[in-house]
């Protein structure tokens, strides 16, 4: 048996992220899922890019504030204490709008842990000359 308590504030934020991201999987000893805590100020994004995952299902639980999630069809507003779920192959970009009243704090869970399965999604692909 094994048990662990992890203090997210004791985990150093990941470098080179558009918002504060504390990766909790490794300190928690998790191997089959990814879990991160994000804190985004107004105008900051959670992911590095508008993206989708090939195999990973993601869930964003909003601890405080309001999370905006852009998808190809619409932008969702996810209030505090609500869960937003993204299936594999579904593009999304989670962010805190520039005009927000304050930061948003989100617990992001992904399973299976799929390091490297994220793919950049371009909502407006460039038109090639032969397409016109």
Structure report:
Residues 14-25, 116-132 have a biased composition (Basic and acidic residues). Residues 1-26, 111-132 are annotated as: Disordered. Residues 38-109 form the Cupin type-2 domain. This is Cupin domain-containing protein. InterPro entries: Cupin_2, RmlC-like_jellyroll, RmlC_Cupin_sf. This protein has a five-stranded antiparallel beta sheet with strand order 1-2-9-4-7. The chain has a three-stranded antiparallel beta sheet with strand order 6-5-8, with no helix packed on it. It has a two-stranded antiparallel sheet with strand order 3-10. The model has no long low-confidence stretch (mean pLDDT 92). The relative contact order is 0.25. The chain has a domain at 34-121: Jelly Rolls, CATH 2.60.120.10. Helix content is 3%, strand content 36%. By secondary structure, it is mainly β.
């Amino acid at each position: 048996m094994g048990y662990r308590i992890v203090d997210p504030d004791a985990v150093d934020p990941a470098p080179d992220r558009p918002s504060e991201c504390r990766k909790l999987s490794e300190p928690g000893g998790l191997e089959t899922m990814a879990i991160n805590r994000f804190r985004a100020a107004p105008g900051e994004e959670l992911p590095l890019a508008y993206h989708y995952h090939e195999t990973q299902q993601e869930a964003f639980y909003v601890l405080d504030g309001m999370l905006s999630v852009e998808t190809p069809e619409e932008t969702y507003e996810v209030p505090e204490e609500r869960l937003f779920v993204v299936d594999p192959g579904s593009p999304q970009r989670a962010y805190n709008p520039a005009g927000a009243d304050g930061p948003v704090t989100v617990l992001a869970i992904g399973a299976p842990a799929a390091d490297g399965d994220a793919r950049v999604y371009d909502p407006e692909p460039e038109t090639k000359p032969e397409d016109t």
